[in-house]
Amino acid sequence: MQQTAVHVVEANPVAETVLPSVGLDRGLMVTLRGYYELTKPGITQMVVLTAAAGYYLAVGDNSYFTTVPHLWHVLLCLVGTALISSGACSFNHYLERDADALMKRTSGRPIPSGIISPEQSLVFAISTSVVGAALLYFVDSITFVLAIITHLSYTAAYTPLKKKSWTAMLLGGIPGALPAAGGWTAGAHELSLGAWVLFALMFLWQMPHFLALAIMYRIDYQRSGFALLGKGEGSSTKVAKHALVYAIALIPVGMMLYTQNIVGGLYGVGFLSLALMFIWRAWVTVQDASVTNARKMLMASYAFLMGVFLFMFVDKI
Fold first, then answer.
1. C-alpha span between 79 and 77 (Å, rounded)
2. Which residue in 195, 234, 236, 231 sits closest to 216, CA to CA?
3. Which residues pair with 263 in a beta bridge?
4. 8 pLDDT band (50/70/90 cuts)?
5. Residue 203 to residue 178: CA distance in whole angstroms
6. 185 closest CA partner among 63, 58, 65, 71
7. What does pTM read for this prediction?
Protein backbone atom coordinates (compact mmCIF):
# COMPACT_ATOMS: atom_id res chain seq x y z
CA MET A 1 0.00 0.00 0.00
CA GLN A 2 2.76 2.45 0.86
CA GLN A 3 4.72 1.71 -2.31
CA THR A 4 1.64 2.30 -4.45
CA ALA A 5 0.94 5.61 -2.73
CA VAL A 6 4.52 6.82 -3.26
CA HIS A 7 4.33 5.93 -6.95
CA VAL A 8 1.13 7.93 -7.41
CA VAL A 9 2.57 10.98 -5.66
CA GLU A 10 5.62 10.93 -7.90
CA ALA A 11 3.41 10.75 -10.99
CA ASN A 12 1.07 13.52 -9.76
CA PRO A 13 2.62 16.04 -7.33
CA VAL A 14 -0.76 17.77 -6.93
CA ALA A 15 -2.01 14.72 -5.07
CA GLU A 16 0.71 15.11 -2.45
CA THR A 17 -1.52 17.10 -0.11
CA VAL A 18 -4.46 14.72 -0.51
CA LEU A 19 -3.06 11.20 -0.29
CA PRO A 20 -1.61 11.35 3.24
CA SER A 21 -5.02 12.06 4.78
CA VAL A 22 -6.68 9.44 2.59
CA GLY A 23 -4.04 6.90 3.57
CA LEU A 24 -4.46 7.77 7.24
CA ASP A 25 -8.24 7.38 7.04
CA ARG A 26 -7.92 4.06 5.30
CA GLY A 27 -5.35 2.85 7.83
CA LEU A 28 -7.55 3.96 10.71
CA MET A 29 -10.53 2.14 9.24
CA VAL A 30 -8.48 -1.04 8.82
CA THR A 31 -7.32 -0.81 12.43
CA LEU A 32 -10.83 -0.18 13.76
CA ARG A 33 -12.08 -3.09 11.69
CA GLY A 34 -9.34 -5.21 13.24
CA TYR A 35 -10.46 -4.35 16.76
CA TYR A 36 -14.04 -5.09 15.76
CA GLU A 37 -12.99 -8.53 14.49
CA LEU A 38 -11.23 -9.19 17.80
CA THR A 39 -14.66 -9.17 19.47
CA LYS A 40 -15.81 -12.08 17.25
CA PRO A 41 -18.95 -10.09 16.38
CA GLY A 42 -20.98 -13.16 15.42
CA ILE A 43 -20.40 -14.73 18.84
CA THR A 44 -20.85 -11.49 20.77
CA GLN A 45 -24.08 -10.64 18.97
CA MET A 46 -25.42 -14.12 19.76
CA VAL A 47 -24.40 -13.75 23.41
CA VAL A 48 -26.19 -10.40 23.68
CA LEU A 49 -29.29 -11.82 21.99
CA THR A 50 -29.46 -14.77 24.40
CA ALA A 51 -28.99 -12.46 27.38
CA ALA A 52 -31.78 -10.23 26.07
CA ALA A 53 -34.06 -13.25 25.66
CA GLY A 54 -33.34 -14.38 29.21
CA TYR A 55 -34.02 -10.91 30.61
CA TYR A 56 -37.25 -10.57 28.63
CA LEU A 57 -38.62 -13.93 29.74
CA ALA A 58 -37.72 -13.30 33.39
CA VAL A 59 -39.75 -10.08 33.55
CA GLY A 60 -43.40 -11.07 33.75
CA ASP A 61 -45.06 -7.73 32.97
CA ASN A 62 -43.99 -6.04 29.73
CA SER A 63 -44.87 -2.65 31.21
CA TYR A 64 -41.54 -3.06 33.02
CA PHE A 65 -39.85 -1.93 29.82
CA THR A 66 -41.77 1.36 29.64
CA THR A 67 -40.00 3.12 32.53
CA VAL A 68 -36.67 4.90 32.17
CA PRO A 69 -34.93 3.28 35.20
CA HIS A 70 -35.82 -0.19 33.95
CA LEU A 71 -34.75 0.58 30.40
CA TRP A 72 -31.48 1.91 31.77
CA HIS A 73 -31.05 -1.35 33.69
CA VAL A 74 -31.64 -3.36 30.51
CA LEU A 75 -29.14 -1.21 28.62
CA LEU A 76 -26.46 -1.68 31.29
CA CYS A 77 -27.04 -5.42 31.19
CA LEU A 78 -26.73 -5.71 27.43
CA VAL A 79 -23.77 -3.32 27.06
CA GLY A 80 -21.94 -5.00 29.94
CA THR A 81 -22.62 -8.41 28.40
CA ALA A 82 -21.36 -7.24 25.00
CA LEU A 83 -18.16 -5.82 26.49
CA ILE A 84 -17.23 -8.79 28.63
CA SER A 85 -17.98 -11.13 25.71
CA SER A 86 -15.79 -8.95 23.49
CA GLY A 87 -13.02 -9.15 26.07
CA ALA A 88 -13.22 -12.94 26.30
CA CYS A 89 -13.18 -13.28 22.51
CA SER A 90 -10.21 -10.92 22.27
CA PHE A 91 -8.33 -13.02 24.83
CA ASN A 92 -9.12 -16.05 22.65
CA HIS A 93 -7.59 -14.28 19.63
CA TYR A 94 -4.49 -13.49 21.67
CA LEU A 95 -4.08 -17.01 23.07
CA GLU A 96 -4.69 -18.76 19.73
CA ARG A 97 -2.72 -16.40 17.50
CA ASP A 98 -0.13 -19.03 16.55
CA ALA A 99 -2.76 -21.67 15.76
CA ASP A 100 -4.82 -19.14 13.80
CA ALA A 101 -1.82 -18.42 11.59
CA LEU A 102 -1.75 -22.11 10.56
CA MET A 103 -5.38 -22.37 9.49
CA LYS A 104 -6.62 -21.12 6.15
CA ARG A 105 -9.92 -19.83 7.52
CA THR A 106 -8.29 -17.89 10.40
CA SER A 107 -4.98 -16.72 8.94
CA GLY A 108 -6.58 -13.41 7.99
CA ARG A 109 -7.61 -12.59 11.55
CA PRO A 110 -6.29 -9.31 13.01
CA ILE A 111 -3.25 -10.69 14.87
CA PRO A 112 -1.91 -13.24 12.32
CA SER A 113 -2.41 -10.71 9.52
CA GLY A 114 -0.49 -8.04 11.45
CA ILE A 115 -3.34 -5.53 11.64
CA ILE A 116 -3.33 -5.65 15.46
CA SER A 117 -0.25 -6.55 17.50
CA PRO A 118 -0.51 -9.17 20.26
CA GLU A 119 0.21 -6.48 22.85
CA GLN A 120 -2.56 -4.25 21.52
CA SER A 121 -5.03 -7.13 21.50
CA LEU A 122 -4.15 -7.99 25.10
CA VAL A 123 -4.73 -4.40 26.27
CA PHE A 124 -8.03 -4.33 24.40
CA ALA A 125 -9.07 -7.68 25.91
CA ILE A 126 -8.30 -6.56 29.46
CA SER A 127 -9.99 -3.18 29.04
CA THR A 128 -13.25 -4.46 27.59
CA SER A 129 -13.40 -7.31 30.12
CA VAL A 130 -12.94 -5.00 33.11
CA VAL A 131 -15.43 -2.38 31.92
CA GLY A 132 -18.00 -5.04 31.01
CA ALA A 133 -17.64 -6.75 34.40
CA ALA A 134 -17.95 -3.40 36.19
CA LEU A 135 -21.21 -2.61 34.42
CA LEU A 136 -22.67 -6.02 35.24
CA TYR A 137 -21.66 -5.58 38.89
CA PHE A 138 -24.16 -2.71 39.05
CA VAL A 139 -26.82 -4.74 37.20
CA ASP A 140 -27.08 -7.78 39.47
CA SER A 141 -24.68 -9.69 41.72
CA ILE A 142 -25.65 -13.12 40.35
CA THR A 143 -25.34 -11.91 36.77
CA PHE A 144 -21.91 -10.51 37.62
CA VAL A 145 -20.73 -13.85 39.04
CA LEU A 146 -22.09 -15.76 36.05
CA ALA A 147 -20.28 -13.37 33.69
CA ILE A 148 -16.97 -13.93 35.50
CA ILE A 149 -17.48 -17.70 35.33
CA THR A 150 -18.32 -17.37 31.63
CA HIS A 151 -15.16 -15.38 30.94
CA LEU A 152 -12.82 -17.67 32.87
CA SER A 153 -14.31 -20.91 31.56
CA TYR A 154 -13.87 -19.65 28.00
CA THR A 155 -10.38 -18.18 28.28
CA ALA A 156 -8.69 -20.19 31.04
CA ALA A 157 -10.31 -23.60 30.55
CA TYR A 158 -11.90 -24.12 27.12
CA THR A 159 -9.25 -22.37 25.02
CA PRO A 160 -6.18 -24.28 26.32
CA LEU A 161 -8.06 -27.59 26.46
CA LYS A 162 -8.94 -27.49 22.75
CA LYS A 163 -5.55 -28.97 21.84
CA LYS A 164 -5.72 -31.71 24.45
CA SER A 165 -9.15 -33.30 24.22
CA TRP A 166 -12.29 -33.12 22.09
CA THR A 167 -14.23 -32.86 25.36
CA ALA A 168 -13.21 -29.19 25.35
CA MET A 169 -16.29 -28.80 23.17
CA LEU A 170 -18.47 -29.73 26.16
CA LEU A 171 -16.63 -27.28 28.37
CA GLY A 172 -16.97 -24.62 25.68
CA GLY A 173 -20.73 -25.05 25.82
CA ILE A 174 -20.76 -23.61 29.35
CA PRO A 175 -19.64 -20.05 28.50
CA GLY A 176 -21.88 -20.15 25.47
CA ALA A 177 -24.93 -21.03 27.57
CA LEU A 178 -24.40 -18.94 30.71
CA PRO A 179 -25.26 -15.53 29.15
CA ALA A 180 -28.89 -16.64 28.72
CA ALA A 181 -29.00 -17.54 32.41
CA GLY A 182 -27.26 -14.25 33.21
CA GLY A 183 -29.95 -12.34 31.34
CA TRP A 184 -32.62 -14.16 33.35
CA THR A 185 -30.96 -13.38 36.67
CA ALA A 186 -30.60 -9.72 35.65
CA GLY A 187 -34.35 -9.54 35.12
CA ALA A 188 -35.52 -11.78 37.97
CA HIS A 189 -32.66 -11.19 40.44
CA GLU A 190 -32.65 -14.91 41.26
CA LEU A 191 -31.27 -18.11 39.79
CA SER A 192 -34.62 -19.82 39.33
CA LEU A 193 -35.76 -22.69 37.10
CA GLY A 194 -36.13 -20.52 34.01
CA ALA A 195 -32.42 -19.65 34.11
CA TRP A 196 -31.46 -23.33 34.23
CA VAL A 197 -33.79 -24.24 31.36
CA LEU A 198 -32.34 -21.49 29.17
CA PHE A 199 -28.82 -22.59 30.10
CA ALA A 200 -29.58 -26.21 29.17
CA LEU A 201 -31.29 -25.18 25.93
CA MET A 202 -28.33 -23.08 24.81
CA PHE A 203 -25.83 -25.73 25.92
CA LEU A 204 -27.51 -28.48 23.90
CA TRP A 205 -27.97 -26.23 20.86
CA GLN A 206 -24.26 -25.49 20.70
CA MET A 207 -23.23 -29.14 20.38
CA PRO A 208 -24.64 -29.83 16.87
CA HIS A 209 -23.49 -26.33 15.91
CA PHE A 210 -19.90 -27.05 17.01
CA LEU A 211 -19.96 -30.55 15.51
CA ALA A 212 -21.08 -29.23 12.11
CA LEU A 213 -18.04 -26.93 12.16
CA ALA A 214 -15.85 -29.88 13.16
CA ILE A 215 -16.89 -31.72 10.00
CA MET A 216 -16.55 -28.68 7.77
CA TYR A 217 -13.09 -27.65 8.99
CA ARG A 218 -11.63 -30.99 10.09
CA ILE A 219 -8.47 -30.62 7.99
CA ASP A 220 -7.87 -27.07 9.20
CA TYR A 221 -8.37 -28.09 12.82
CA GLN A 222 -6.00 -31.03 12.46
CA ARG A 223 -3.37 -28.78 10.90
CA SER A 224 -3.49 -26.44 13.88
CA GLY A 225 -3.36 -29.25 16.44
CA PHE A 226 -6.89 -29.07 17.81
CA ALA A 227 -8.23 -32.33 19.24
CA LEU A 228 -11.25 -33.66 17.33
CA LEU A 229 -13.96 -36.20 18.00
CA GLY A 230 -13.20 -39.34 16.02
CA LYS A 231 -10.21 -40.24 13.88
CA GLY A 232 -9.73 -41.94 10.54
CA GLU A 233 -12.37 -43.31 8.18
CA GLY A 234 -15.93 -42.67 9.26
CA SER A 235 -14.95 -40.03 11.79
CA SER A 236 -17.31 -37.44 10.29
CA THR A 237 -20.20 -39.90 10.49
CA LYS A 238 -19.44 -40.43 14.18
CA VAL A 239 -19.49 -36.68 14.70
CA ALA A 240 -22.84 -36.42 12.91
CA LYS A 241 -24.33 -39.14 15.15
CA HIS A 242 -23.36 -37.16 18.23
CA ALA A 243 -24.97 -34.08 16.69
CA LEU A 244 -28.19 -36.03 16.13
CA VAL A 245 -28.35 -37.11 19.77
CA TYR A 246 -27.96 -33.54 21.00
CA ALA A 247 -30.57 -32.28 18.53
CA ILE A 248 -33.08 -34.84 19.84
CA ALA A 249 -32.28 -33.87 23.44
CA LEU A 250 -33.35 -30.32 22.67
CA ILE A 251 -37.04 -31.31 22.60
CA PRO A 252 -37.68 -32.13 26.29
CA VAL A 253 -35.55 -29.21 27.44
CA GLY A 254 -37.07 -26.61 25.13
CA MET A 255 -40.61 -27.75 25.93
CA MET A 256 -40.00 -27.07 29.63
CA LEU A 257 -40.45 -23.38 28.92
CA TYR A 258 -44.00 -24.26 27.86
CA THR A 259 -44.76 -26.75 30.64
CA GLN A 260 -43.52 -24.27 33.26
CA ASN A 261 -45.88 -21.58 31.87
CA ILE A 262 -43.08 -19.25 30.84
CA VAL A 263 -44.30 -19.24 27.23
CA GLY A 264 -47.54 -20.23 25.54
CA GLY A 265 -48.85 -22.83 23.12
CA LEU A 266 -47.73 -20.99 19.99
CA TYR A 267 -44.15 -21.32 21.22
CA GLY A 268 -44.74 -25.03 21.90
CA VAL A 269 -45.95 -25.74 18.37
CA GLY A 270 -43.28 -23.56 16.81
CA PHE A 271 -40.51 -25.05 18.90
CA LEU A 272 -41.48 -28.63 18.03
CA SER A 273 -41.62 -27.79 14.32
CA LEU A 274 -38.18 -26.16 14.41
CA ALA A 275 -36.70 -29.00 16.46
CA LEU A 276 -37.97 -31.63 14.04
CA MET A 277 -36.47 -29.66 11.15
CA PHE A 278 -33.16 -29.54 12.97
CA ILE A 279 -33.28 -33.26 13.80
CA TRP A 280 -34.03 -34.12 10.18
CA ARG A 281 -31.06 -32.05 9.03
CA ALA A 282 -28.81 -33.88 11.51
CA TRP A 283 -30.21 -37.24 10.34
CA VAL A 284 -29.39 -36.40 6.72
CA THR A 285 -25.83 -35.59 7.81
CA VAL A 286 -25.55 -38.96 9.55
CA GLN A 287 -26.50 -40.66 6.27
CA ASP A 288 -23.93 -38.62 4.34
CA ALA A 289 -21.46 -36.72 6.51
CA SER A 290 -20.23 -34.50 3.70
CA VAL A 291 -19.06 -30.93 4.09
CA THR A 292 -22.14 -29.80 2.15
CA ASN A 293 -24.54 -31.52 4.54
CA ALA A 294 -22.57 -30.31 7.55
CA ARG A 295 -22.90 -26.75 6.26
CA LYS A 296 -26.65 -27.23 5.85
CA MET A 297 -26.83 -28.55 9.42
CA LEU A 298 -24.94 -25.47 10.57
CA MET A 299 -27.43 -23.20 8.78
CA ALA A 300 -30.28 -25.24 10.28
CA SER A 301 -28.84 -24.59 13.75
CA TYR A 302 -28.99 -20.84 13.15
CA ALA A 303 -32.52 -21.08 11.76
CA PHE A 304 -33.62 -23.15 14.75
CA LEU A 305 -32.25 -20.73 17.32
CA MET A 306 -33.54 -17.59 15.61
CA GLY A 307 -36.96 -19.18 15.23
CA VAL A 308 -37.05 -20.26 18.88
CA PHE A 309 -36.15 -16.74 20.04
CA LEU A 310 -38.86 -15.31 17.81
CA PHE A 311 -41.49 -17.59 19.35
CA MET A 312 -40.20 -16.72 22.84
CA PHE A 313 -40.64 -13.01 22.25
CA VAL A 314 -44.04 -13.37 20.55
CA ASP A 315 -45.60 -15.85 22.98
CA LYS A 316 -44.29 -14.97 26.44
CA ILE A 317 -46.90 -15.45 29.14
1. 6
2. 236
3. 316
4. very low
5. 8
6. 58
7. 0.88
